[in-house]
Amino acid sequence: MITAQDKILHVANKLGLTSLKDMQASTGAVYDVDTDLSGQIFSNAARHQNPSITNINENQFEVNEALLVETIAFYVLNAGGDTENFQRIYGSDTDIMFDLIIGNKRVMKDTPIFAAGSPFTFANTANFTAALGPNNLQFFAPRHQVFMEGAGILIPPQVQWSVQYTIFNVVSGAVVAPTASTQIGCYLFGTKVLLNFNTSI
Amino acid sequence: MASQPQKLAYVDGKLGAPTSGQQTTRILFNTIEAPGTTSTLVFFRNFQGLTSGQTNLTQNKLDSMESMIIKTISLYNYAPEGNLRNFGGAVQQTLSIIVGNQTVVKQLPIQFNQGTNGQAFDRLHENGGAEGQALGASDVLQNTLPCEIRLLTDIVIPPQVAFEVRIDSNSAAYTAAGAVTCVLSGYGKIFSAGNSF
What we know:
Largest interface: A-B, 53 and 57 residues
Number of domains of chain A: 1
Shape of chain B: globular
Order of helices and strands of chain B: HEEEEEEEEE
Number of domains of chain B: 1
Oligomer: heterodimer
Mean pLDDT of chain B: 86
Number of helices of chain B: 1
Radius of gyration of chain A: 18 Å
Radius of gyration of chain B: 18 Å
Low-confidence stretches of chain B: none
């Protein structure tokens, strides 16, 4: 089984990124929110406040920085800036259909995330139940993510990436529009490569 | 043990199918609206009238340059108000996957993996079908999780080969005005033009 580090080096070698192997390996995540309600995430990160909305200044990495995406997750940001569970806000009968685009290539296409709990979270148990008032009723707030166990996907240095999404109602098939108080956010998590000056300066 | 990429490359190689293409995580799904009470559900057979939020295929086969591994099967049963219910109530049902003219998963019981009486096949999903306390008829919060089964042997869907998922029961009651959805997820390859154009 190929490791994350092996995969990064393999792709870097294919792309001619000879110095990536000398950089600092790490773990990282990037996130952003579709504040324009345009159906695109990360494209407008440069205009967003850091860190309340995003943790990147532009939707491409610096020289010799990269991210092997191993998990993609979605969440909701409300008007108060709180992070909310997608199912709590949109209901169990919705799903997010998304594409991940790196450069001019669509590397994940028509991928669903189900509000009721997605496949490929690897374990449904990673949810929580909470007391709901005097009767102590309980509910589930499932994860909304894709765990990419088969193959992580590398975002190379200095290449733009974005996520396109649409929300649907699974039962009726209708499109569900986000609002200013129910903005959709996304994070990409995985093995990160950080710029390392040790051998250069 | 072969990984998902290794198994897909091996089977595609045996079939003479293209092995190039963008490696990715692939999730296919199909919905049946208003299933009601029935003894047979067949997913990935009908795509008519479904929107992109109800299925992500337009035919029951992958494109010519695409193939995938099925690693996980998930089943959802939506009530009319949108909340999730146990898939087909609490009665026994079996699942079969047919690829081409071959049954590759045969009458696999699904009921153990959901509901308050569930005895999930693997530890990862030991609470996969757990059910919270009842929230009443008009509940808006979710108290049931989807039925999810992780396969021990990876199943390959080759390019351009028809497939379907069949659920058999003795008149299981699904939601009459809601919908049921079947999801197949795993590693896959999608068409990549590269520098061909």
